[in-house]
Design brief:
With 357 residues, this protein is of the alpha+beta class. The protein contains 12 helices and 10 strands.
Length: 357
Amino acid sequence: MQGNKPSKKKQLFSIGEALTEYLKRQNRFVHLPVQYKDLLRYEASTELLNQNGENTYWETVYFQEYERQDLYDKLTRIYSLLKADGDLKVLEHLAVARVDFCTFGNTKPFRIRIINRLNDNYDHFYIKKADASRVYGLELEYLLSPNSLSYLVDGETLIEEHIAGIPGDDFMISNLQESDFNQIRMAKEFIKFNERCFVRLLGDMRAYNYVIDITPDIEGNQYRIRAIDFDQQSYEGRKNFYLPQYFKENNPIIFLGIKHMAAETVRQYQLEERSLIAGRVKASLKQVNDLFDVMTKDEISQKSKVLQLREELAYHHKNDVFKKHTHMGELVFTNIKLLLQKDFRQSIVFKELRDNL
C-alpha cells in the first residue's frame, strides 16, 4: 500500500466566477483594503522560536517605516470585517502587535496578531493565497461540522480566523496521560472526527493539521477535534488519505480507541456522527445544494487523482455510481449521500438533496 502522504506539493486552483457568485450570496466576498501580495513587500524578518527555543517555521516580518502604520491600520480594518462585519467602533482600542510569515505550507500564510491595548488581550487571523479547494473545505466545515468559523475572500486573497486549541501533536505529548475516563472521551471524539473527515473527504488530517479544544466538565474534560488546514479538501486520489485513522502520527489516539472501545461502540459513534451531519444538511439544505451546484462542476484536482479516487470509492462502497463522475465535487457529493443513506434511508434530507449527479 502507498504511503499516506501527499503525492507532491498541492496545486493551487483559482476561484472562478461561479464560486465567487456563491461567496457573494453568502457574504463571504468583500473588497479588502490589503491583498496578500501587499504583505510580500516586507523589508526584513527574524526567525520566530517557540518557548523551548525551537524553530516554528514562522518568521516575524518588518515593513518600512513610511508604510507600516498605514498597513497596520488596514489590517485592523480587516479584523473588524472578519469579527464585527466591518463595525469600525471595535477598532478604537485595537492595534497590530506583530506580523508573522510561514515558510512552510502551500498557501505561505501571514499571521496577524491583534492586541487590545486596554487589557493586552490578543487574537490572530491569517492572510493567505486564495485556493478554490481550500475555500470549499472551509465552507464544508462550516456547513457539515459542529464548528462555526469565519473567512473572507477577495480575488486572490483569503482571510481566515484563528482556530484556538492545543495542536494535536503537542496534545499527544502532554495531555494524553490523564484518567481512563478522559481517554475514553478522547477516543470517542477521534472516531467522530474520523467520520466527519471521510464523509466530506477532507484529507491529510495528521496530528499537526488539527487542534484539540478542551472544555472542562463536571466529571472531567470534553474534547473537540477541529481541523485547521483545509488545503487537502478532496484533492488527492487515495481513499485512505481521507481517513485520519491511517496516519501514524495519530497512533497514540488510535491506541486509546483499541484499548477502550469495542467494535460495536465504534459503530455506535459512527452512526451518531452521521445522524448529526444529516441534521446539519437538513438545517442548511438550500445552501448545501447551492454549494454543490458550483463544486460539482469546478476543477479542483488533477484528472488522474479524480480517476483514482472514483475507483477506490466505488470499491469501498461497492457502488459503481462513482465511475461516471469526472469532477472531485461530484465524488464528494455522492460520498456524502451514500454514507448517510446507508443508515438513514427514511430521512427527508436525501429526497430533497438535488439529484444533479
